[in-house]
Q: What sequence folds into this?
């Protein structure tokens, strides 16, 4: 019988810990829905106790996800467990994920706890979590730097107290594949009762080994892999979901006995959605989802691929949802074709009212752009999820420039319903427009980051602008899209200010 490797996605928890990533509740829900379409078994929706916003997001996701298990992280303390239990209680399949660090360095310097105290805490808190929910995951933080014998004691106590999944995090991304294989083998051979629970690994990428370590763990008997879309996460990030799923699928010769529930055709749309919403783009040479992952530059390669794609391609772009020849929409495409396209990209969770709005936006875009590509549709869905009903709306703008003078922006906005028109000069059209917006709202912000990317190729491509604005130590991301780069820039700036004002 084939072995099911569960995919536990922590994009919304560990991934959200990526520096500067800050998703709001609606954006998190949209990503969670997409993860469900992708076939993820467990969605770690957040760390409910961290803030009221985190609690609300976990709760909303728990209430809206049907197929995947929804979990919240919780330290091994009563309050965290109570809040996590409350947040996931309405999920169809709820789980609590509780953890405590076990390595000597964490025991001595962070927790200031003895081994005995840790064992007592694990017993008490796993039992406490079990009193709310049956499905309990227990993680030994920094497991891979913990004494093996102690780890065995910790996991045995967790199993006795009711844990149904034991997670082995390589928290600092320190181990190599051989060591990971040995550790999982050791635990399998020594932890009493381990055959009745799932063994999970959670690898970080500090040495670029997270995926390799996860694969080694599967070979040693791990049944759950914790990962994130695009490998997002703390520091160098986490195991990348798309890489794990495609390794198991592409190397059937090695991994015939394993399968995941991932629908690989949803990988690319999901990756794009996450990068548009988080504002973190993937590097061009990123495996599976990077812009160049299927591009063949050299003549020899191009010749080979034309003769037979398998000369240089071990998987097809279509198998991960990158469809260069897929149905391209244009201004004559109707709603039926549009809805079909949404579905083929995995966006069958977009509600009918949203579809109407998206279709109207699509029509506007198709008027400006000859071909509306998959990436454009994904960007529309991301833009719609990132939309925020804020105090400011952009009504109109104009840029003028006289030879030898600075550009001038005239920006009309609605602030709390009141129409305001302001003019300002700047070093460039975007600077001028931002100065005019500042005048209109009688406020100033530090623009910490400004990033402009074309969503597709060609001169009529949509631009996506991501900004980070700072005010009194608080940072907000803003995003805007348009076929006009200045408009995309102003929208991003206003989106950021609206987030700041609604906070
Ligand atoms: O990296 C880590 O150890 C974690 C745990 C909380 C699972 O994220
Ligand atoms: Zn982690």
A:
């Amino acid at each position: 019988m084939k072995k099911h490797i569960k995919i536990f996605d922590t994009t919304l928890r560990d991934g959200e810990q990526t520096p500067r990533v800050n998703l709001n509740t609606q954006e998190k829900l949209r990503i969670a829905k997409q993860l469900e379409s992708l076939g993820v078994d467990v969605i770690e929706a957040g760390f409910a106790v961290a803030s009221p916003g985190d609690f609300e997001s976990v709760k909303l996701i728990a209430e809206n996800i049907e197929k995947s298990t929804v979990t919240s992280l919780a330290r091994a303390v009563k309050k965290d467990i109570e809040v996590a239990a409350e947040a996931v209680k309405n999920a169809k399949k709820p789980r609590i994920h509780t953890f405590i660090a076990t390595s000597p360095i964490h025991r001595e310097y962070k927790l200031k706890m003895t081994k005995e105290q840790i064992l007592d805490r694990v017993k008490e808190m796993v039992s406490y979590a079990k009193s709310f929910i049956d499905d309990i995951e227990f993680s030994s933080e920094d497991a891979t730097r913990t004494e093996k014998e102690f780890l065995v004691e910790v996991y045995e106590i967790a199993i006795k107290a009711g844990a149904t999944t034991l997670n082995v995090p390589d928290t600092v991304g320190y181990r190599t594949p051989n060591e990971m294989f040995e550790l999982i083998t050791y635990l399998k051979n020594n932890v009493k009762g381990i055959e009745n629970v799932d063994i999970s690994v959670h690898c970080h990428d500090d040495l670029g080994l997270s995926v390799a370590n996860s694969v080694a763990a599967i070979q040693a008997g791990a049944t759950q892999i914790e990962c994130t879309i695009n490998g997002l996460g703390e520091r160098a990030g986490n195991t990348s979901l798309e890489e794990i799923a495609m390794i198991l699928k592409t190397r059937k010769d090695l991994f015939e006995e394993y399968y995941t529930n991932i629908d690989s055709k949803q990988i690319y749309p999901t990756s794009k959605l996450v990068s548009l919403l988080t504002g973190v783009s993937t590097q061009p040479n990123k495996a599976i989802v990077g812009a160049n992952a299927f591009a063949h530059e050299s003549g020899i390669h191009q010749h080979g691929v034309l003769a037979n794609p398998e000369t240089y391609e071990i998987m097809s772009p279509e198998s991960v949802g990158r469809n260069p020849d897929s149905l391209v929409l244009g201004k004559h495409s109707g709603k039926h074709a549009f809805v079909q396209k949404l579905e083929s990209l995995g966006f069958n969770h977009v509600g009918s009212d949203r579809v109407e709005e998206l279709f109207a936006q699509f029509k506007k875009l198709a008027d400006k752009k000859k071909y509306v590509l998959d990436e454009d549709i994904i960007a529309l869905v991301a833009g719609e999820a990132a939309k925020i009903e804020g105090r400011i709306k952009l009504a109109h703008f104009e840029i003028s420039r006289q030879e030898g003078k600075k550009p001038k922006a005239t920006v009309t906005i609605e602030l709390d319903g009141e129409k305001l028109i302001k003019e300002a000069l700047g070093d460039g059209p975007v600077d001028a427009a931002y100065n005019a917006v500042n005048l209109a709202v009688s406020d100033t912000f530090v623009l910490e980051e400004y990033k402009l990317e074309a969503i597709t190729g060609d001169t009529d491509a949509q631009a996506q602008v991501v900004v980070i604005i700072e005010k009194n130590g608080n940072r907000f991301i803003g995003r805007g899209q348009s076929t006009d780069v200045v408009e995309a820039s102003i929208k991003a700036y206003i989106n950021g200010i609206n987030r700041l004002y609604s906070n």
Summary: The chain has three domains: 3-278, 326-383, 392-502. The first strand starts at residue 3 and ends at 4.
